Structures are given as C-alpha cells and as structure tokens.
Amino acid sequence: MSNLKSHASDAPSSVRASSNKPSTQKRILDTAERLFAKEGFEQTSLRQITQEADVNLASVNYHFGSKKALIQAVVARYMDVFMPALDEELRGLDDESALTTLQVFEAFKLPLFSLNGIHKRGTERFLRLLGFAYSETQGHLRRYTQSAFGNVLQHLLALLHRANPKLSDEEMFWRLHFVLGATVFAQVSGQALIEIARAEFNYEVNIKTVIEHLIVFIAGGLERP
Amino acid sequence: MSNLKSHASDAPSSVRASSNKPSTQKRILDTAERLFAKEGFEQTSLRQITQEADVNLASVNYHFGSKKALIQAVVARYMDVFMPALDEELRGLDDESALTTLQVFEAFKLPLFSLNGIHKRGTERFLRLLGFAYSETQGHLRRYTQSAFGNVLQHLLALLHRANPKLSDEEMFWRLHFVLGATVFAQVSGQALIEIARAEFNYEVNIKTVIEHLIVFIAGGLERP
DNA sequence: GATTAAATTAAACGCATGTTTAAAATGTGT
DNA sequence: ACACATTTTAAACATGCGTTTAATTTAATC
After folding, report:
1. B75-223: which CATH topology?
2. Which of A65, A112, B37, B224 could be bridged to B128 by S-S, CB 3.0 to 4.6 A?
3. Would you state the pLDDT for residue B131?
C-alpha cells in the first residue's frame, strides 16, 4: 500500500545495511511525523523536515514524489494499524444484545492505545495528525480515508444507530460531526490544554486521561434524547 | 479600541464624503471579513483581498499596519458587539433559582443572532472566524479575546458550575473545551456539512438549525453525570 | 574491475507571500 | 492660490516555499 517511488528493484528498504543509522526514507518519515504532529502539515516545511532529519532537501521528492505524498505516507502508517484494529473491535459488538453508545465509543480505546506500538506516544500523534487533517483542508487525506476505510466507518454508523434507535438520521448526522469536532479539537489544542490543566489542577495529565474524559462527554452528547 | 493607524487627524473615516463608494478602510475590512470567513486567515492573501476590494495592495499596510492587525480588526468588529450582548444575557441568569445547562447555552442565541445586524450572515461569519482563530494558531487573537473579555468568560464558567454543582473543576475544564471544539469544528466544516446534509436529507439547512442541534448536543455532553 | 543502477548532493527555478519605498495624486486649511 | 498633510499608487524588496535539474557519489551486478 506504500506510495513510495519504487525505482525498479526495491530491495534495500527499511534499514541501511552496514550502517546502524536508519535509512533516509525512514528518517524522513519519522521526522516528518514528529513535526506534522507538532505544528500541522502546512506549517511544517520540507526544509525543516530535511534539516532535522539530516538528509538532503531533494530526497523527499526523490523518495516520496511530493509533499502531499509524504503527508499521506505518514498518516497511512497509522491508519493501516488503527483501522483494522477498530474493525475487529466493532465486529465484537455485532452480537451484543443491548448495545450502548458508551460501548461503541469505548471500542476505540484499544485500537487507539495499540498505536503506542508504532511510537512511544503514537496515540497522541495519530489523533493530532487526524486533527490537522481535518482542520486544515487536506481534501486528499479525507478522500483517502473514505475510500480505504469507508466500510469500517459505515459499520460504526450502523452500530451507533442500533444503540440509539430513536435518533433520526438527521440528528445522528449532526451529532456525529459534533463528536468529531470535539475529538479533533481536543487533540489539536491538546498540548496547550494539558499544560493549562497541569498548572491549574496540579496533577499529571496524559493522553489517556483526555480520552477518558472525551468519551464520556461525547457519549453524553450523542445520547441526549 | 480600533488599532488603525491614526495619522494625526482622523476625521474622514467610515464613509467617503462626496462619492457613494465606501472608504478604502471599510472596503478592505468588508472584503477581508468575507474572505477570512470563507477560507481562513492564513489561506487568504492580501493580494486576494485588495484585488477583490479594488484597492491598492499597499493600502492594507498603510491603514492597518500589518496582516495580523487586519485580522484583529475584522474579529474585533464582531467581538465588540457579541461580548457585551452575551454579558447582558448572562447577568440575566444570575437571579435564576434553578439554573440549567441548557439555559446557559441558550443565552448565547440572542447575542449570536444579533450579529446579523452587522452583516446579513453575521452569525455564520462570526462563528467561522472564531473557528479559524482557534484551529489556525492565531495566538494573538486568543490573547486579545482573553484580555478584552476574560471577565465575561469567567462569568460563563461560574454559571456552568452553578448549573452543574456535582461536576468537579477538572471535569468542567475538559468538557468546556470539548464544547468549544464541537462548536468551532461545526462552523469551520459547517458549509461542507450543510451541503452534505442538504443532499442527504433533501431539506433546507441553515446556520440556525445547526446551532439548535449543537446546543442540544453540548448540553447533553456537559451534563453527563 | 568494469558497467550499470540507485541514491545523494548543491544549486537553481519559478512562484507566492507580507512588507517597504518613493513618487504621484488627492484633499484640506488658510 | 498656495502650502501642507493625507492618501493612493506602481514597483521593488526580502523571504520562504515546493520542486527540478544535472552532476557526483555510492551500491549492486555481471
């Protein structure tokens, strides 16, 4: 599924053979991910990425083709883990006799936390990438998600309808988008919020705490009669 | 409160004397507002604004000093109407004996709709401007709002606490930010959503409908025990 | 070890941005 | 009508961006 320029044979990927230094591709991908999650896609320049990754400016276009393609590659690395995991969790809910909204949203927790396998703070990074993907107008990302994982999202919608049979299609439509808004915003402004919270309430806050609060909130909003 | 360059005497503002054409300042302000609300602050260039306003490129810097100052002037025009109106509505709730969350959020409705006095679609524009102000990193705008209208926002927080005495400070903190997120997102993605909704449900959607749905949703999320 | 393919590099390209400059035009007060 | 302040204008400036080019270095293949 990788969109990388293949250049005939693509044997020596992933890790440089003799050196203990990761390959140029991986260095770009890792640095881009870190900076994208920190500042957003548009705010991060290729010069910034290549400088911090200690690779040549032109290598991004050589290996990925364009900045857009690099963005997609960064996001795809998480999507390819998250979406199948979510899919499995949602399937587990199909047999549930008395399905609740909270159950549906809690099905997100394991897939989200599994992203910490990709990176130490993978959950946080993924959600922030997602946030920027929606708040900046990265139409190509939305289209990619829709076409690659549209079936999973439809499954989600069906389960929410089952948990809230009294809600009209129209109401569900709006509320689901509000849910998305609260989620995205929480992540994009997340770091600032965490710092404020830390100062104000004098206790440690982490991404897990935020997600717990968020799930309760969005379930409450969505279930409102 | 205007940050405009005064240049000694500032007599001939607002409207050009002999011509029936609005002054350069007003033309810039109106066009900038329209484009900012449509595309966001960063996505809108001064060249785009001045071209559509039919004024010279340099006049923005002459009259406003910088793009940042122009952004602030555009937002301030709405804030200066909205915040006092909200303040008054909130004061009206001080004497309420059994205050509910829904009441607090419904206090936003009149101030919001009053913005249609500034422009035909003032409510929509204001909310979208607000959305971009938060989703783009316009730190100076956040600081301006906080310093100019911080007292009103604190009043709001106090009322919400009164309506939800069982909610801890910490929970209120998070939920209020989720509320903000849902609101902002609804507006920034608003036009796209309205069009989707129109196509999907085959009926007319306007900003008022969105706000009605939103208020119910956020009240539900915030009240969740 | 020669030959080919892949990867890296420094430099430039083309374009767009916000801002500044200095001259010209317009308006104002006496 | 003059002198002065204000506004408008066209042009250039400085900077940053993504991308492309062409030469060089490195790696793989026979």
Report:
1. Tetracycline Repressor; domain 2 (1.10.357)
2. B37
3. 82
